[in-house]
Amino acid sequence: MTGGVRLRPLTVVEEGDEALVGDPATGTFVSMPAVGGVVISALLRGASEEEAAAEAEAFAGEPVDLPSFVAALAELGFLDDRPDGDRPDGDRPGDDRPGDDRPGGDRPDVERQAVRTAPIQMRRWMAGVSRRVARPFFGRAAWACYLALALFCLAVFVAAPSLFPSPAQDAFLFDDVGLSVLLLMPFVLVSTALHEGGHWLAARAIGLRSRFGVDRRMMLLVLETDLSQLWTVPRRLRYGPLLGGIAVDVVVLSLLLAARLLIRQGVWSPAPAVDATLAVWVFVKLAGLLWQCMVFLRTDLYAVLVNALGCRDLWRVKTLMLRQAFGRLTPAQKAELVAAGPADVRAGRWFRWVWLAGFAGVLAWFVFFVLPVVVAALAWTADRLVLGPFEPRFWYALLCAALLLGPYVLALFLAVREHVRR
Predict the structure, then answer these.
(1) Which residues of 125-134 are buried (b: 16+ CB within 10 A; e: fewer)?
(2) Separation CA 406–CA 81 (nearest Å)
(3) 35 and 58 in contact (C-beta within 8 Å)?
């Protein structure tokens, strides 16, 4: 063996007996034995194949089949196969690591597209805010404030139960149900954008990039932030970006409740429309926060759970173990389960039943927060559709119903498309 192996700008994170190796530009990450991380780290430093093999042998205590390992890296797309003339000056492996504040650290990779993690998704990673600007919002003092605000929200709901939202009333800003529905959708979109922006800003606080997409959770359409690049940093640094959305939700909810509390105490006397608007926002934010608490879905707290338990693919292992429990495991799936990580298997033993029971939780959430709004809107729509297509109110009601039900129809479409692709 002579010469060196040119790798893409890979990252290597040591995690016990394993190394997590990946290409941040494409969002491709794999777990491998620690000796693989030793080889890749050596190659990233510019070591020759002989030097990398020697380091690996010293680490493992036995010879390493480096050619086979390099061939595996090629299959993963981790080799830099660009001609020398196509590599810009300074474009060496390791120059564009996430978390690096040097100029060029957020330069998009134009050679390969990022792996798609949602049916509808941005193609490139997004930066925009420097690590220095974002960091104060997610330091220890900031998290202490977020915790205090969360406790404040709980205290307000306990001390003033009337401020807890009543969806059948608080979701509608005006007596005109149609107009209220038209306004509710922008409220939901802005609320969701603030939440996802929290993830993005928290990722920037540790120097990572992210991107936004649209996916579904069961029968609901959701916006999501792709935080794949969290795998490039140690586990303890991942909690901030994972909880960044909830932190923003807590701040907004506490401000809304404080304003409503001032109105209830007579300290502030705004127009009734202002209090009604605040009530809509409280309803929207609380619904979103409680949704994120459903660990049996791929929500923020599920991601926190996976990170805390050291799992790699708990969602897939959960599915395999459920099939095993009901006698529907194929030979190929059995082999896949045998090869699963120990942490995933340990967690999967109980998480599969949590996931099953979670259907009741989702149904309860849907019945309390969504169903009253949908029923009221559909009843209002039906009263106007009977007027016929020659009446302007017919088309107005149809438009409002389409805006309200559109996300659910799109979620159903994505579910069908996912099933067909499988």
Answers:
(1) bbbeeebeeb
(2) 45
(3) no
In sequence order, the 6+-apart residues with CB closer than 8 A to the CB of 191 are 249, 252, 281, 284, 285, 288
**Confidence bin at 127 (pLDDT 50/70/90):** confident
In which residue are the tokens 């970006």 written? 241
- CA dist 211 and 127 (Å) reads 9
253 and 289 in contact (C-beta within 8 Å)? yes
Determine the Cα–Cα distance for residues 41 and 45; give it in Å rounded to an integer.
6
Q: How far apart are CA 331 and CA 339, in angstroms?
A: 13
Two tokens at 196? 């996802």
Cβ pair 209, 203 in contact under 8 A: yes
Start-end of H helices in 231-370: 239-264, 272-292, 300-309, 314-325, 331-338, 342-365
Number of H helices, E strands in the chain: 15, 6
Residue of 414, 422, 28 lying closest to 222 (CA atoms): 414
Closest residue by Cα to residue 292 from 245, 339, 338, 332: 245
SS3 content of the chain, % helix, strand, coil (to 5): 60, 10, 30
- Contact (CB, 8 A) for 167 and 368: yes
Euclidean distance between CA atoms 84 and 87, whole angstroms: 5
Q: Which residue's structure tokens are 């259907």? A: 359
Q: How far apart are alpha carbons 157 and 191 in whole angstroms? A: 20
More confident residue, 5 or 83: 5
180 within 8 A of 173, measured Cβ to Cβ = yes
Q: What angle do CA 128, 131, 135 make, to 5 degrees?
A: 125
**Which residues are registered as beta bridge partners of 29?**
22
Reading the block at residue 101, the tokens are 């504040």
3-state class of 92 per DSSP?
A: coil
Tell me how far CA of residue 85 lies from CA of 43, 81, 89, 242, 296, in angstroms.
21, 11, 9, 40, 50
Q: Which residues 6+ apart lie within 8 Å of 182 measured at CB?
A: 399, 400, 403
Residues whose CB is less than 8 angstroms from the CB of residue 180 and which lie 6 or more positions away in sequence, other chains included: 171, 172, 173, 174
This prediction has a pTM of 0.82
CB 180 within 8 A of CB 283: no
In single-letter form, the type of residue at position 213 comes to G
What is the DSSP code (8-state) at residue 370?
A: I
pLDDT for 18-49, tens place per residue?
899 999 988 889 989 999 999 999 999 989 98
Encoded tokens for 233: 């940093």
